[in-house]
Amino acid sequence: MERKNQYVLITGATSGIGYELAKLFAKSGYDLVIVARNHEDLNNKAEEFRKYGVNVICISKNLFLPDEVYSLYSELQQNGISPEILVNDAGQGVFGKFQDTDIHREVDIVNLNIVSVIILTKLFIKDRLPKGSGKVLNLASIASKAPGPWHSVYHGTKAFVLSWSEAIREELKETGITVTALLPGPTDTDFFNKADMNDSKILQDKDNLASPEEVAIDGFNALMNGDDKVISGIKNKLNAAMINLTTDSMAAHRMGEMQKPVTEK
């Protein structure tokens, strides 16, 4: 392995797809800045990543809070670190009908899935523009392609991430900075547990869940190729193609049937 002497900044790096991406970057010789809320999880994962012979910096931040996003990048600049690659992986959802779910939690989710992502990406771009290089990987989702009853706020945030990623990619096309969106489908991570979604029909057959390792590989390869986006998995590519052929109301009905609780008729 050849050391790249370049840092990758990864949010949500201690579990799921973010963890698998961090491992891929470490194996490829990139130094890491890993971000999560839990100090212990960060330190444990850092020790694991350092076994690949790379530097790992742990930064504990609560990305639900915009001020902590700004302070994250300030700490990097104060220490003379300009990441070459940014991976916006951290994200959450909440399950249930919109009229029943907790608005405070949903505002937190919008802050995490959208606000923290646009702040961090803007700071990254302003840092990298004078250098003429940089790569951004944004975790969208197959959820970005259709309205999502029972998971409406999450689907809405991911639709924003995909549309916005494609827009800023076009703006940056002459700058040396690329923006790539990764669209996984249902993946075997702790996401559904955090979203209180374990009773959803979509989880009744765990064999339908993708492995986070496979999703991370798809995202890593697309990012390195400078692709605009990648839908991870053949089944998800087919689902996206079907969504493109239906009306929004039909897509919403189909998604609602897939995602509703098993107890719901």
Break the fold down into its secondary structure elements and pairings:
Layout: E1 7-11, H1 16-27, E2 31-36, H2 39-50, E3 56-60, H3 66-78, E4 85-88, H4 103-128, E5 134-139, H5 152-171, E6 177-183, H6 191-194, H7 212-225, E7 229-231, H8 234-244, H9 248-259
Parallel strand pairs: 1-2, 1-4, 2-3, 4-5, 5-6, 6-7
Helix pairs in contact: 1-7, 3-4, 4-5
CATH architecture: 3-Layer(aba) Sandwich
- CATH C-level label: Alpha Beta
String of helices and strands: EHEHEHEHEHEHHEHH
Estimated share of beta-strand residues: 5-15%
Total helical segments? 9
- The overall pLDDT average reads 93
Coarse shape: globular
Q: And the CATH topology?
A: Rossmann fold
Query: By helix and strand content, what is the structural category?
Result: alpha/beta
Give the N-terminus to C-terminus distance in angstroms: 54 Å
- Helix content estimate: 40-55%
Give a short account of the largest sheet: 7 strands, parallel
CATH level 4 superfamily = NAD(P)-binding Rossmann-like Domain
Radius of gyration: 18 Å
Q: Taking strands numbered 1, 2, ... along the chain, how are they ordered across the largest sheet?
A: 3-2-1-4-5-6-7
**Count of DSSP E strands?**
7
The number of domains is 1
